Amino acid sequence: MRMPALFIAAATALALTAPAHAKTIDVAAGDGAQARLQEALIVAEPGDVVQLGAGRFVLTDGLSLDVNGVTVRGAGMQSTVLDFTGQQGAGEGLLVTSDDVTLRDFAVENTKGDGIKSKGADNIVYYRVRVTWTGGPKETNGAYGIYPVSSTGVLVDGCEVSGASDAGIYVGQSKAITVRYNFVEQNVAGIEIENSRDAFVNDNFVTRNTGGILVFDLPNLPVMGGGNVIITRNIVFGNDTPNFAPKGNIVATVPRGTGIMVMANDSVSIAKNHLDANPTAHIMVVSYPMPFKDARYIPTPRNVLILSNEFGLGGYDPAFDGGAELLAGLESRSLPNVLWDGLGQPPRASDGSNSYALSLNLPSQGSGLGQARPKVLLLPKDVPPPPVPVSQASKAPPYPGAPHELEARITR
């Protein structure tokens, strides 16, 4: 029986795209680790696994991967350590510029620049990766720990990051994002979603950062219009580390003690999180504070929903000018759970525990706190609350989150 021509063409295309001889490339720690590991990342082919052995890989230069469909896998985030303490350059530890890459089960320590950066790398998975600067919070630490940028399809799952002088986990100018089950501490920003859309940030433990979870939209970037973000079921506790970002960085303006901060973003849902011991404010909804000339940019927040969160004590030591005077005027001696600068659309709430906010009532974008006319207000009700995906595997547009096909890579 003759096969239809269309069937033959499809089978031929599949054979050409599938890895014919996928293999495992073993790389052990020890002498010459720099050259052996970089060579493995160069000669790997789509479908290959670069298998890192247990031990400490002492590295003096950054690594790069530019091959699609490669998995870099260690023996565990405590067992396989890429040690960049002696790094000569100022770049990242590992740079990935290819698609369909999986990074899992290893650690990166003490890079001079960012820990792991992926740029333009679609459908990338970070799974059980640890990035840290072992000397604790310092301005001289690298800016970002886990740093995917300009990507479609990002999954960051089960990772640990500490010590970043900008953001521990930062996803920028990307879409279709899931950040979940991570532990982030002692960074300036624990988790930051910037100029990105369709992000699902869930079930993370965010503690001892300057600010816990930030959702920003900034001007003058190639990709703008961030929004459609769900922040849910996170524990945001005790984010009280003094800000150690280099001066001039936008995160250098984040007050010590911020739980969740939304700035100039659209359609953000903050739902079913547990927030406690964040001394400036549990939730801040604010406009971009600086001058700008980008005509495309909207500097105010829109469509922010605050739904069924649990709040412990917060707002008892606000780290901004006039904070002490605000406290003196309140019988509770703590700020309400929600702080809004009074610009753009007010946040909306769904129940009594989320219904009150302190509005700074600023007169215009870029106004200083000296122009604030603070007042407590009842937030408008939201009906009904937005749908939240039960699981990423069942999500469908317009729900945010990474493509569910990425799940398969962390179950193998």
Q: Can you walk through the features of this model?
A:
With 412 residues, the protein is mainly beta. It has one domain. 7% of the residues lie in helices and 36% in strands. The strands form 2 sheets. The chain has a 20-stranded parallel β-sheet that branches. It has a 12-stranded mixed β-sheet with strand order 4-7-9-11-14-17-20-23-26-29-31-32. The longest helix is centred in the N-terminal third of the chain and has 13 residues, at 5-17. Mean pLDDT is 91; it is low at 1-18 and 389-395.
Structural class: mainly beta
Q: Which percent range describes the beta-strand content?
A: 35-45%
Q: Biggest β-sheet: count, sense, barrel?
A: 20 strands, parallel
- Average pLDDT reading: 91
Query: Considering DSSP H and I runs of 4 or more, what fraction of the residues is helical?
Result: under 10%
Concise account of the structure shown:
This protein has 412 residues and is mainly beta.
SSE inventory with pairings:
Layout: H1 5-17, E1 24-27, H2 33-43, E2 49-52, E3 55-58, E4 63-65, E5 71-73, E6 80-83, E7 94-96, E8 102-109, E9 116-119, E10 124-132, E11 144-149, E12 152-157, E13 160-162, E14 167-172, E15 175-180, E16 183-185, E17 189-194, E18 197-202, E19 205-207, E20 211-216, E21 227-232, E22 235-237, E23 258-263, E24 266-271, E25 274-276, E26 281-286, E27 302-307, E28 310-311, H3 323-328, E29 338-340, E30 348-349, E31 356-359, E32 375-378
For this entry, give a set of tags.
412 residues, 20-stranded parallel beta sheet, 7% helix, disordered N terminus
